[in-house]
Design a protein that fits this description.
Layout: E1 5-8, H1 13-17, H2 20-33, E2 38-41, E3 55-59, E4 62-66, H3 74-80, E5 91-94, H4 99-102, H5 120-125, H6 130-135, H7 140-150, H8 162-170, E6 178-183, H9 192-199, H10 201-215, E7 219-225, H11 229-244, E8 260-266, H12 275-282, E9 306-310, H13 311-323, H14 325-329, E10 332-333, E11 336-337, E12 339-346, E13 352-357, H15 362-369, E14 379-384, E15 391-393, H16 403-408, E16 417-422, H17 427-441, H18 447-464, H19 469-486, H20 490-494, H21 496-505
Length: 511
């Protein structure tokens, strides 16, 4: 009997939102009508979001891509012989040869889009749990040394060296320690955390387990925003399978080590992406920013030493333990080692995810990958690093994307999110929006953030109305200085970044 033809259709939320489930139904129906045997595998997204739903057909030459496929397209694709990789208006050739994908450096995202995310055998076949196997033979200090040598820094935005944070928890004595994954991905234009949780959940489980071995923690929590139902479902399925097969729980793979974890849902408050506010939420309290010190590494969840990293940081740990610190640190530039999944959003023809080594420029991402504006008009500004990131003019698009280089231009890379705007954007409105966002999302604990953001909205409105403009401009700068110097956390402290960058680079929009 002829083996069924394997067809990959993403189960990623972005693909589902645009009709991937309908495409699956249409394929099954059309195959039955034509008496053709097919087997559909639901993979994660490849990150070429402008081509979703991206369907891949397994052929003797490799996986052949078609997209964007809708349910309406399916009959014509069968007519064209797509099950044999034949041409069609939606045909893109071999998936791995698509330039957008071919020219990336996929380390953290090496398996995403290739495997069935909840199939443990698929994960194991692509070096899954190899890093954990190695870690089980190492001392905690050796694991921390390896992570430190890799140069991995927090991918959630703060860019704090991961190894230093882990070493602090390792060296702090306590009867209980915790690993907390901050998956409260709330920055505008960011979706890499979600793609990992939906497309390669075992890598996050493996990374958290390695972290537990490294610092002596026996339990972990993944704090996921409730707007990610598919990520939550996928994680819970993978966690149950990992427990059943001995990759979580007591006596990991027959060893003396124990580690388990669970998913906790957040209610969608942006402030709970700040680590101490997230800890309050995990403890069942209202999410309020805590004063530091003490650091969470010393007194964190339930007052115990706690490692807090984001999804990308923890999902990168397995490849470091599997292939060594030198392998990972060979990518990147200067003190910005490794890769970062950049997320392209806004007014771009080809929005999606691009994993590249640090050192790539914003111009390369916007044009070599994003293909320029979707509107066809010139790009004017790009906000990098989420709603607290600076707006960068074209004169800064050739600055290498590494943490130190961006610091010199008063910008940040953050979580790797890019939102592009064409020349129709009004930057005074964008500056005002930054203050409005802070006013809405502030936890209210500190005065500079709570009151400053509200006053900021009022001041910018007066500037836009040309009401004592010079006086209001001076007042706005003073207000921004106060917020940056006096706020308890990054929400109030960094809200001035987009405001000041808009004032500096696009002054004509304020007059």
């Amino acid at each position: 009997m002829t083996s069924p033809i394997v067809i990959y259709v993403p189960r990623d939320m972005a693909a589902i939102a645009i009709g991937a489930n309908d495409v699956v139904t249409a394929i099954i129906k059309e195959a039955a009508l034509r008496d053709v045997a097919v087997r559909i595998v639901r993979n994660g997204s490849r990150g070429l979001l402008w081509l979703e739903t991206l369907v891949e057909i397994v052929t003797p030459s490799g996986r052949v891509a078609y997209g964007p496929v809708t349910a309406h397209d399916v009959p014509s694709l069968f007519d064209a012989g797509w099950l044999h990789g034949n041409t069609h208006s939606l045909h893109h050739g071999l998936t791995e040869e698509i330039p957008y994908l071919k020219h990336q450096e996929r380390l953290t995202f090496a398996r995403i889009g290739i495997i069935d995310p909840i199939n443990l055998d698929d994960y194991l076949a692509m070096d899954g749990f190899k890093g954990l196997k190695n870690a089980l033979t190492m001392t905690p200090t050796s694991i921390v040394d390896t992570v430190t040598a890799s140069g991995l820094r927090g991918r959630g935005g703060a860019a704090f060296p991961t190894g230093i944070k882990w070493r602090t928890v390792l060296n702090t004595s306590a009867d209980q320690k915790y690993i907390v994954c901050n998956a409260d991905e709330g920055d505008s234009g960011t979706f890499s955390d979600r793609m990992v949780m939906e497309g390669d959940p075992y890598s996050l489980i493996e990374g958290m387990t390695i972290a537990g071995l490294a610092v002596g923690a026996s339990y972990g929590y993944i704090y996921v925003r409730s707007e990610y139902p598919y990520a939550i479902s996928t994680l819970e399925t993978a966690i149950a399978e990992a427990r059943t097969t001995g990759w979580l729980g007591q006596h990991l793979q027959g060893s003396a080590h124990h580690f388990d974890l669970e998913v906790r849902k957040g209610a969608g408050a942006y402030i709970c992406g700040e680590e101490t506010s997230m800890l309050d939420s995990l403890e069942g309290k209202r999410g309020l920013v805590r004063a530091k010190p003490p650091l969470p590494a010393i007194r964190g969840l339930f007052g115990k030493p706690t490692v807090i990293n984001n999804v990308i940081s923890l999902s990168t740990i397995p490849i470091i333990l599997a292939k060594g610190a030198a392998y990972y640190s060979d990518y990147g530039t200067g003190r910005s080692m490794g890769t970062l999944p950049f997320q392209l959003a806004g007014n771009l023809k080809q929005g999606g995810l691009v994993e590249k080594a640090f050192g790539v420029t914003l111009r390369e991402l916007l044009y070599d990958y994003g293909a320029g504006s979707a509107s066809g008009r010139p790009l004017r500004a790009v906000q990098v690093g989420g709603p607290l990131g600076a707006y960068l003019p074209e004169s800064q698009w050739d600055t290498p994307m590494d943490y130190e280089a961006y610091s010199t231009i008063s910008a940040m890379i953050g979580h790797g999110g890019l939102v592009a705007f064409d020349d129709t954007v009004d930057m005074s409105k964008m500056a005002k929006y930054a203050m409005e966002f802070c006013a809405i999302e502030s936890c209210g604990k500190c005065t500079p953030c709570r009151i400053g953001s509200t006053r900021g909205v009022e001041i910018i409105a007066k500037i836009q109305a040309n009401d004592q403009r010079d006086k209001q401009m001076a007042l706005l700068h003073d207000l921004c200085d106060t917020m940056m110097a006096g706020s308890l956390c990054a929400l109030g402290g960094m809200t001035p970044f987009p405001v000041l960058s808009a004032l500096e680079h696009f002054p004509e929009d304020f007059g």
